[in-house]
What does this fold into?
Amino acid sequence: MNIVSIYAIPALILIIITLGFIQKVPLFDCFLSGAKDGLGTALRILPSLVGLLAAVSMLKASGALDLLSYALAPLGRLVLLPKEVIPLALLRPVSGSGGLALMENVFKHHGPDSVAGKAASILAGATETTFYTITVYYGSVGIKKMRQSIPAALAGDLAAACLCGLAVKWLS
It folds into this structure.
């Protein structure tokens, strides 16, 4: 299996180049065209990403995340979600890197095999960086109206947070 993982990408590149030569496709021109399109896509989504990163920074720096976590602690107890994981449940839909930093913090203070560590692992694996994903994917193709996308994705994140405590209890 290790040999397959080592040679899969180079073999795929070689196949693409070989097929391009056989079909007489101008490979370098196609590459440049794709790179140009990629740069245009990056420029289109950049303002949304900057806004999203600024919002995450303000949320953490202002203490709003801590205040919201404290306010939601009684609901967390109701669904068996450890209070240490509530900030992760709030930040994960907004920021993947912020969520990973919070998960690492839970691991450092409570250990990965603790109830909080297991809950953080399940929550990180069961939720999506909803706003980042929608920003990137919708921004890259120019979709402005998101309709039910955000509520549906957030409902999935909420379901994951609510069922996370039960999963930890079931697995322990």
Summary: The chain has eight helices and no strands. The first helix runs from residue 2 to 22. The mean pLDDT is 87. The radius of gyration is 21 Å.
